[in-house]
Protein 1
Amino acid sequence: MAKTIIVSNRLPISLRHRNGRFEFKPSAGGLATGLGSIYKTGENIWIGWPGNTVDDPEQRAEIILELHELKMAPVFLSKEDVEQFYEGFSNECLWPAFHYFTQYMIYNPEHWEAYVRVNQKFCEAILKRADPDDTIWVHDYQLLLLPQMLREVLPNATIAFFQHIPFPSYEILRMIPWRKQLLEGVCGADLIGFHTYDDMRHFLSAVNRITGLSNESGYLQAENRIINVDSFPMGIDYDKFAKQAKSRKTQNIVKEFKGQMIDQKLIITIDRLDYSKGIPQRLQAFNQLLKDHKELHGKVSMIMIVVPSRDKVQSYKELKEEIDLLVGRMNSDYSTLNWVPVHYFYRSFPFEELSAFYSMSDIALVTPLRDGMNLVCKEFVASKTDQSGVLILSEMAGASKELQDAVLVNPNDQQGVVDAIYEALQMKPAEQKARISSMQESLKKYDIFQWVKVFMDRIEHVKEKQEELTSK
Ligand code: GDG
């Protein structure tokens, strides 16, 4: 029987090196949970990089065995691969280009060669395990070349691709010297998915202008195949967040945390360290609010969690310094003995504590300059089980297309963000309730499990359509 293979750059595990041995902890992230029902079934498997470089053949063998138990198979990357493929081409060329940060793009042919080489490594790892009729679902921008590489060897396989980050307009994509190869690579798939309609539209227009393929109602006609392109906005594990927020454990943490911040309104912000998330701009808006509204001093604080990420890439190092400086300045300007405006944490928290932060906060300030979807805003809404709270959301996040009951802002409009925070602080409970409950309804319906189902059903549909066409 044909099986399904999930492929992503990172496997859904964290790997720790302890006492000369590796320890694995399965990831509890949304995607891993959603895809659990797929890769943990039957012969199905998840293939990807375990996240550490391992050179010792004995250790590699040990890791292969242990991952096998978890229904995963590793692709081992060398230190050079990580530097040139992951930190280099993926994160210093594609990531900035796709998020419209062209000033950070680095066009390095060695990085490009490494990108081709590592996509090839993934291809070989998959070919060792794939049968000709399998379904292979490839994830994200690190593996854009993989669908076509697989197609050449497995012409009858069903190949799908989903991109988790935005897809830029043609004018940006064309800046990349290897744009044609990238598009031809991804067009090896039968189904190509994006979070939003706009990403899909940008992709179709770039494909048309660069490769000449034209689309009809979301179908591209390739030489002897059709390729379906569509948007599939990703959801969260809604029940998990709602349940955790109500749990005794989380409510005890809320009591403890809140006890230290009596009579203060709390604004939560949570992001990976990334320039696309607009962290300095958000701090500047909060600074402006405190400057304009002295009456809010001592009455409102921001809890800012920044999760360390890509700290070897120069632009990320600089961003960290900028944030440190801004927070330092704000706190030294405004703090009193019993009030600190920004509680800044450069680390990640266990799930129960994350849930407590969501649950106890009055406002979530989610203002990326560009974001494929953004799950933090959805998790905040799901965690507000008493239906209080206000979500302030950037128009540049994919999620804003669904969460129209948020207070929507343009993150580049500092005064607009200041006004939105002020409005949120004054918002009446009845209005908060109306907005939160309406967003909860849609997030509940279209959760991560539904997202996986809709995508997998579409793969099936495209496969049938393909067969119909070839039998004609
Ligand atoms: C990419 C795209 C797209 C954060 N801090 C902690 C913690 N987190 C978890 C959140 C959330 C996740 O990290 C962050 O997800 P986002 O979607 O906000 O952002 P990216 O990492 O940039 O993800 C994005 C996503 O892919 C999915 O397609 O939405 O646009 O850029 O789930 O909860 N989790 C824990 N402790 C923390 O301190 N446990």
Protein 2
Amino acid sequence: MKVINVVGARPNFMKIAPIIRAIETYNNSYHLSPITIHQLIVHTGQHYDYEMSKVFFEDLELPEPDIYLGVGSGTHAEQTGKVMIEFERVLFKEKPDLVIVVGDVNSTFACALAASKIDYSKESGANSKVDTIKGEQISVSNPANSINAMNAMNARGYRPLIAHVEAGLRSFDRTMPEEINRLLTDQISDFLFTPSPDANENLKKEGIPEEKIFLVGNVMVDSLLYNLEKAKKSTILRKLGLQKELPTANCLLPTAYCLLTLHRPSNVDDKDAFLRIINALREISKRIPFIFPIHPRTRKQIETFGLSSYFVYHDFKPINQTNQINQRNKKNQRNQTNQTNRINLINPLGYLDFLNLMMHSKFVMTDSGGIQEETTVLGIPCLTLRDTTERPITISQGTNVLVWNDTQKIIDEAFKVLDGKGKKGSLPELWDGNAAERIVEVLLKE
Ligand code: UD1
């Protein structure tokens, strides 16, 4: 059986890593089995900076991508369209039996859509323009290797089956590009692997046949648990000066800080929304400093909106623009009270450093999806800067509270945490580190 694992953007890497490992483990343990799984990694290149992509391959010990599409940034249509065109070429060349897509980014939907419409028997003869990083490609698979039981679904000709991992999550907010990606990917997938029972319910309500839906648990949690010990060894606290000495015990303790991430268009592309959040940060920073690893989109918006004076930049590459910002900041800081320079911007972090910062934080504020889950697993209070979540189980069972960009609500909830009244949660069922194994089991059975 030949499988293509698709990744494109930062949150994909930690979701695909355990699946790749589980497939490897299967191949190594069952080498006499009639089915060997040949797997390839296709990286669309949606995220391309070292800090947004390569460092995750290193931290997660992911093999180098076999094929890199290099699509880069663009409007949603440009990005989705470019991924589809390039991925279709890969599909014609490699003819996989199965395509695995994870999460909800543009690359997820684009690759699922290309796979759902392709007909291997009608190859156009288009030349592939894709770069092959490793050089050697595994030979084109034999159509007879396809997953037999599901072949009936290939009604329109011979195409790969599509597995969507993290299926069924819904925010019910169609202004979110990810919600559109989630809805559409689920509609065209053959295997829908869900992380929680609410996702199964959503899919059933949308008319997805039950036999396609498999509750397997959370692959993001697989990665977290697998890497926890390694993450504990990260030296990021020391690098950022976030440790204080406890003389009586002769040891170093983390200082109290709040870890912040922010990149959703609804928060950072709208200046008023962004300012409402900044006003809350300024108030909260009187009691606790923020560590804010900054997404490139947010960094750009801070500069565009002229909001740099609210932040202190650390660690940035010595590019001219950054130097100018720091010069401006120095001038501004002289006129500001202390609290404003307690919102500390740092470069985006790798997986292990970020996990380390998260596990030692007093609480986390974020508009990310995955971080809501990770904080629930780590038992760290999470204030989510959104008005909806596609991960309601992190609220009903976990440590998550929605605060949107409502200045007063953000402050109130943060102060609750600081006063020792933060939310305590429990671990959802099947978030046990074995979701990827369950996925491979299902794929082999079907
Ligand atoms: C994407 C996902 C989002 C996910 C986020 C995690 C979609 C629709 N959105 O959003 O769900 O939470 O990734 O990061 O797929 N850029 C760089 N370097 C990079 C990548 C991006 O500078 O390596 C800049 C570009 O200017 C780009 C902007 O960031 O225009 C946004 O990148 P994009 O991939 O379009 O969306 P994200 O906001 O990262």
